[in-house]
Specification:
The chain is an alpha/beta fold and about 250 residues long. It folds into 2 domains: about 1-130, Response regulator (Rossmann fold, 3-Layer(aba) Sandwich); about 135-235, Response regulator (Rossmann fold, 3-Layer(aba) Sandwich), CATH 3.40.50. Helices cover about 40% and strands about 15% of the residues. It has a 5-stranded parallel sheet with strand order 2-1-3-4-5, with helices on both faces. Strands 7-6-8 form a 3-stranded parallel sheet, with helices on both faces. Helix 2 packs parallel to helix 3 (about 90-105).
């Protein structure tokens, strides 16, 4: 029931979305809007909820935690949404979590993977998710890399933000269970276009496989890996196991 009880006098039930609708992550926001809109259209066509139509109100967080929090406040306090949906970026979702719990507004994570979005320590936790959890993803990636690819001497290359921290914690724990540890951990920024220096340092440190975590084009570009091979890493970085698998 949540806030729906408080909003019975309204003709429609508003649901809010805070996601990246511009910038390099805009496609993710567009995909979420399409999914929500499809579900809302189906519900409304079937008569809505207790005879009331659902209305989607979306705001652009620009992948910025501060702007995401402001957008969440505006949706709850001004638009009176009954529930909030989140977007791609873990840092934005983490900024919204305390406000959602304080306001007792359900906050549904549909994409961001940071473990502590839902495992946030709140006594009354109003945060839910249908997205992957980094704690589980890290375990699955390490299991795949070792069992399927025979990976040894792993290194990590992670985005330098709370999502990267969540990945690092999950992967480190998964390796620890197998009496292993990363031979190196490198970070990159969202706007980086080249990760060859990081890959070179991992190679020099004895890395034999990489586990990337992030949405930077530098990490998912096969060209970057080819350039790394040109630096003498052909035998040194044979495998990448991540949300975007690199070979």
């Amino acid at each position: 029931m949540f806030r729906l009880v408080l909003l019975r006098g309204r003709k429609t039930i508003k649901v809010g979305l805070v996601a990246a609708l511009s910038g390099q992550s805009a496609k993710s926001g567009e995909a979420i809007i399409r999914g929500l809109s499809t579900a809302i259209d189906e519900i409304n066509a079937a008569g809505g909820v207790n005879g009331r139509k659902i209305e989607l109100v979306a705001r652009d967080d620009e992948s910025n935690p501060g702007k995401g929090l402001l957008a969440a406040r505006e949706l709850v306090q001004r638009e009176k949404v009954a529930v909030l949906f989140g977007g791609l970026d873990t840092p934005v979702s983490l900024a919204i979590v305390p406000f959602a719990n304080q306001s007792k507004v359900p906050f549904m994570g549909v994409w961001a993977g940071g473990t502590n979005i839902t495992r946030n320590g709140a006594a009354d936790n109003y945060v839910f998710r249908v997205s992957a959890v980094d704690a589980y993803v890290g375990e699955a990636l390490v299991e795949y890399a070792i069992k399927k690819k025979g990976a040894k001497a792993p290194g990590m290359i992670l985005i330098n933000n709370p999502w990267g921290e969540s990945n690092e914690e999950a992967l480190t724990e998964a390796l620890k269970k197998r009496n292993m540890q990363a031979v190196g951990i490198e970070k990159f920024e969202t706007n980086d276009v080249d990760v060859v220096p990081q890959l070179s340092r991992l190679k020099t440190g004895g890395c034999r496989c990489t586990v990337p975590g992030g949405k930077c084009g530098a990490v998912i570009s096969g060209r970057q890996i080819a350039r790394a091979h040109g630096l003498g890493c052909a035998g040194g970085l044979p495998l990448g196991a991540g949300r975007w698998t690199l070979y």
